[in-house]
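Protein Record: Sequence and Backbone Structure Tokens
======================================================
Tokens: labelled as protein backbone structure tokens, with as many entries as the chain has residues.
Task: work out the structure tokens from the sequence, keeping to the layout shown below.
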Amino acid sequence: MYPLIETICIKNGVVQNLEYHQKRVEKSIRELSPKICCFQLIDLIENNPTQLKNTVRCRIEYTDISTKIEYFQYQPRNIERLKLIFSDQIDYHLKFANRSELDKLTMLKADCDEILIVKNGCITDTSFTNIVFCKDNRFVTPKYPLLCGTRRQYLIDKGILQEQEIAYNDLKKFESVILINAMLDLNIERKINIKNIVI
């Protein structure tokens, strides 16, 4: 089932939301290898200094016995149109390096930039982000994401996001959506009009 990955944002040398990443790593290892002691992410990052500036994507691939760390300069994708894709079988509750099932669904995006996955009638995530729905300065995120993202959990804990079960036919109740993940903060300048979600 291994390896898993953890993607961590480093801005101008400052590691973002490390506590949340550490908790997810520990939870994942407990589920897959309950007798293994978990490593500390900060030790890996401190032992691998980088000269990259601005926003850096730190990718850590790990198993129960090994780790591999890489750094990349980050450039966000331009996402303007989302295609609804229905899959009741998809499971990505742990952040596995193997994304083959997500990749198969992504191939169905047609002329859109990204997919938005519907599972058991409810909105979940895109192939690489959690999603936030906006209306009247209120921010709502699906109650049942494919993956509980670190940014998502941080914003929930801060009271900025509220969880809500959102059926795919509830989309018309919202004005726009914002994609979030470890690298993408809740930025209203990146809002996507709800009309740009197509079936």
Observations:
- The domain at 4-73 is CATH 3.30.470.10 (D-amino Acid Aminotransferase; Chain A, domain 1).
